[in-house]
Amino acid sequence: MPASSQAPLAIGVDIGGTKCAAGLVSLSDGRVLARRLLRTEPQRGGAAVLADVIDMVHDLQQEPSGRAASAIGLAVPELVSCEGRIVSDATIRWLDMNVVDQLGSASGLPVSLEADVRAAAYGEAHFGAGREYGSFLYVTVGTGISACLVLDKC
């Protein structure tokens, strides 16, 4: 039996300026077991985007994996403080919304919030091209352009 068949699962949600992607992920190897994708349409407002995210999470919680997800990781295209608070609203109008509490309450799972570029850099550091390096620069070009410097990872 592959290691990922018994590994804990999480739901990862990546919010972007044009699309929202979500997946049910094995935490041992980063393998995506199920995916959901929809248009963000941020002009509808933060509440509408959050409602879509909640619907995607509920849908992934119904996946027949035989195991339940234990947490949600939410990556947003905004500035995020070291305390995990959204501190900008350039793309999604979530500055005055407590999306972590609302998503956690709706899903029954703990939620971790991170800036999308940092979340992607963490993923590369653990499962991708950054695995072999102690330090590296991660640059992403999408709806916007952003970068994250990973230094002396353990």
What secondary-structure arrangement, pairings included, does this model have?
Layout: E1 9-15, E2 19-26, E3 32-39, H1 46-61, E4 69-76, H2 99-107, E5 111-115, H3 116-127, E6 136-141, E7 145-150
Parallel strand pairs: 1-4, 4-5
Antiparallel strand pairs: 1-2, 2-3, 6-7
Helix pairs in contact: 1-2
Measured distance between first and last alpha carbons: 29 Å
Q: How many beta-strand elements?
A: 7
The oligomeric state of the chains shown is single chain
Beta-strand level of the residues, as a percent range?
A: 25-35%
- State the helix count: 3
What can you see in these coordinates?
There is one protein chain. The chain contains three helices and seven strands; from the N terminus they run E-E-E-H-E-H-E-H-E-E. The longest helix is centred in the middle third of the chain and has 16 residues, at 46-61. With 154 residues, the protein is an alpha/beta fold. It has helices at residues 46-61, 99-107, 116-127, and strands at residues 9-15, 19-26, 32-39, 69-76, 111-115, 136-141, 145-150. The protein has a five-stranded mixed beta sheet. The protein has a two-stranded antiparallel ribbon with strand order 6-7. The chain is 24% helix and 31% strand. Helix 1 (46-61) runs parallel beside helix 2 (99-107). The mean pLDDT is 91.
